[in-house]
Amino acid sequence: MPSTTLPPTSDIDLFATETLLDPYPVFSRLRSAGPVVRLSRLDAWALPRYEQVSAALRDHETFSSASGVGFAAGLNKIMAGGVLASDPPRHTALRVILSRMLMPRALRDLGPSVTDAAEELVDRLATHGEFDAVSDLAEAFTPRFVADIIGLPQEGRAQILEFGASTFDGLGPSNERTPATIQGQQALLHYVSTTAARDRLTEGGLGARVWEAVDAGDIDEHAAVTLMMAFLSAGMDTTILSLAAAVRLFAEHPDQWDALRADPSLIPAAYLEVLRIASPVTVFSRVTTRSWECEGVTIPAGARMAVMYASANRDERKWVDPERFDITRKPADHLGFGVGIHACVGQNLAKLEAHALLEALLAKVRRFEIGKPELIVNSTLHGLSRLPCRIIT
Ligand code: HEM
Predict the structure, then answer these.
(1) Nearest-CA neighbor of 147 among 65, 74, 198, 205?
(2) Measured from the CB, is residue 147 less than 6 Å from ligand 1?
């Protein structure tokens, strides 16, 4: 039966630059407006609360990714059929190739080199004392691990940092940055087809496995290219933003740093809390395959839904005092990595990196002092572009 309840409507612009720079007050207004809110400027519906974000992500039959998880027809079309932008059975065939290489067991061999790299980097930064926590710490640390897992050639590795942000930005609606995001996609495609072409990848790496799956007839060549593209873009900026956010949060909450120094076994819990309160991925979308009822409001089939991970992670209905950074909270059910069949396939790698880096920092740093943070402007990511930092050992 169609519902007679009128849905709450909002003219909030989820992708205005002011919103991207300071999203949390806007998220809070949307959560107050209702569990599902019609966004009049976007021809889409927002899911700003934890309960509905979690429900939508777990119900991929109603909330499909096959028409893309962004808001712009252009990039949705380019990404269509890729791992992020597909439903089972296609999604299952693509995902299994990535997940095999990213399970904790598969990452075990990488562990010691991540620890060594973290210690070496922190030693260097501690000697210097002053640095930028984005470029000198997070960006200096993360890209090599994604590159090693894929088996990328050394040549051209500096370039891979450029790809992630533009893919995530391109997932937002068309705007003045769209031409740059399309250029970014073209550069990524060019890189995957030339510098990181099949015959240039290290044997046994994830990239080589992707092409073996083509030979085995499990996926086609187009799927192989989109898998490489997804992997290269999804694992970089997300992790970088989370590491820089950790430094900022611990600088702003020295009591929490002291608590972590007193009990380093809280490192995994602390990283969960960083991801909850400073979720790098703010929003992706789904399209309903059938009508969906939510608290008396009926959403029709074919509706584009904004699934608001970062807002869900600050929902006061779910979390006690959600604005408070508390490393003893242990929010294992935060939605910063998503949940359901599309839940982040790289989360074990992100955790491995973050835990190693926090451990190395704990061994050296008594206090972080920070200057004025600068923020990225990106349609689906939130976080720092610059964070002047001094460490007191
Ligand atoms: C802190 C770091 C990270 C965050 C916050 C993050 C966040 C996310 C989120 C929210 C999703 C769900 C997308 C959806 O619901 O449609 C996702 C999926 C994905 N992530 Fe991550 N991610 C991180 C690190 C990584 C890393 C390190 C890699 C690769 C090495 C990676 C690769 C992927 C891929 C390939 C998917 C698509 C999975 C699928 O559609 O089945 N991510 N990530």
Answers:
(1) 205
(2) no
Find the 234 Cα to ligand 1 centroid distance in Å.
6
pLDDT, position 4: 58
Distance 283 CA to ligand 1 centre (A): 12
| pLDDT score recorded for residue 74 | 82
The class that CATH gives domain 9-392 is mainly alpha
Q: Which of 129, 130, 389 is nearest to 244 (CA)?
A: 389
280 lines ligand 1 (CB under 6 A): yes
Per-residue pLDDT reduced to its tens digit, 161-219: 888 888 999 999 999 999 999 898 889 999 999 999 999 999 988 899 999 999 999 88
Q: Is the CB of 82 under 6 A from ligand 1?
A: no
At 3 the pLDDT is 47
Query: Which residue would you say has higher pLDDT here, 115 or 100?
Result: 115
Are the C-beta atoms of residues 13 and 41 closer than 8 Å to each other? yes
- The rounded distance, in Å, linking the Cα atoms of 272 and 184 is 31
Q: Report the pLDDT averaged over residues 337-365.
A: 97
pLDDT of the residue at 1: 45
Q: Domain extents for the chain? A: 9-392
234 Cβ below 6 A of ligand 1 = yes
The residues facing 63 across adjacent strands are 288
Best of 148, 279, 337 to mutate for ligand 1, by most ligand atoms within 8 A of CB?
A: 337
Exposed/middle/buried for residue 201 (C-beta within 10 Å: 0-12, 13-18, 19+)? buried
* Residue of 98, 344, 358, 381 to mutate, ligand 1, most atoms within 8 A of C-beta: 344
> First-to-last CA distance in the chain?
65
- Exposed, middle or buried: residue 308 (CB in 10 Å: 0-12, 13-18, 19+)? buried
Instruction: Provide mean pLDDT across the span 322-333.
Output: 97
Provide the pLDDT for residue 77: 85
Tokens of 291: 């009508």
Whether ligand 1 lies within 6 angstroms of the CB of 235 is answered as yes
Contacts of 110 (CB under 8 A, 6+ apart): 145, 148, 149, 349, 352
pLDDT one-digit tens code per residue, 120-146: 999 999 999 999 999 999 999 999 999
